[in-house]
């Protein structure tokens, strides 16, 4: 098996699309803000976002906006400088943690969420 990409299933597709394209600046490789599916390519990886309702229909289960799956997945992005990226994104995203050194892990990290409430971590090695 080969992992080809990560796909986020979201209830607010357009808002998430604009977040990954316009706020984080990811390069769009397929889709648009109304297609309900999009792929973003960056550094050899692909991130897909897909309207969750369509995925639920594709697998034949019942759609509900209620979910108890909070923080079972996190997207982790390595950056050159957490401080610089933090300053760049501050005001565009709501950080839930400020840049912090995790000396036991050997990294500096900061965390925020996308519009679908997915947890995102930026980090650098220290």
Notes on the protein architecture:
The protein is an alpha/beta fold and 126 residues long. It contains 3 helices and 8 strands, in the order βαβββαβαβββ. It has helices spanning 13-23, 52-59, 82-89, and strands at residues 6-10, 27-30, 37-42, 45-51, 74-78, 95-102, 107-113, 119-125. The strands form 2 sheets. A 4-stranded mixed sheet has the order 1-4-3-2. Strands 5-8-7-6 form a 4-stranded mixed sheet, with helices on one face. A hairpin with a 6-residue loop joins strand 2 and strand 3 (37-42). The longest helix has 11 residues, at 13-23. The protein is globular. It starts with 5 loop residues before the first strand and ends with a strand.
Q: SSE layout and pairings?
A:
Elements: E1 6-10, H1 13-23, E2 27-30, E3 37-42, E4 45-51, H2 52-59, E5 74-78, H3 82-89, E6 95-102, E7 107-113, E8 119-125
Parallel strand pairs: 1-4, 5-8
Antiparallel strand pairs: 2-3, 3-4, 6-7, 7-8
- Low-confidence stretches are none
Question: Strand share of the residues?
Answer: 35-45%
Question: Secondary-structure element order, as H and E?
Answer: EHEEEHEHEEE
What's the total helix number? 3
Number of strand elements: 8
Mean pLDDT equals 88
Helicity range? 10-25%
Sum up the overall morphology in one term. globular
- Ends distance: 33 Å
Instruction: Work out the radius of gyration.
Output: 15 Å
Lateral strand order in the biggest sheet: 1-4-3-2
Alpha-beta content class: alpha/beta
Largest sheet: 4 strands, mixed
């Amino acid at each position: 098996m080969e992992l080809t990409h990560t796909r986020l299933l979201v209830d607010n597709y357009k808002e998430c699309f604009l977040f990954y394209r316009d706020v984080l600046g990811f390069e769009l490789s397929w889709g648009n803000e109304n297609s309900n599916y999009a792929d973003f390519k960056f550094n050899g990886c692909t991130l897909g976002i897909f309207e969750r309702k369509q995925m639920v229909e594709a697998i034949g289960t019942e759609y509900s906006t209620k979910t108890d799956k909070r923080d079972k997945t996190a997207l982790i992005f390595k950056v050159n400088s957490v401080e610089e990226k933090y300053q760049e994104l501050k005001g565009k995203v709501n950080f839930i943690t400020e840049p912090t050194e995790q000396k036991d892990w050997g990294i500096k990290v900061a965390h925020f969420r996308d519009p679908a409430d997915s947890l995102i971590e930026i980090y650098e090695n220290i």
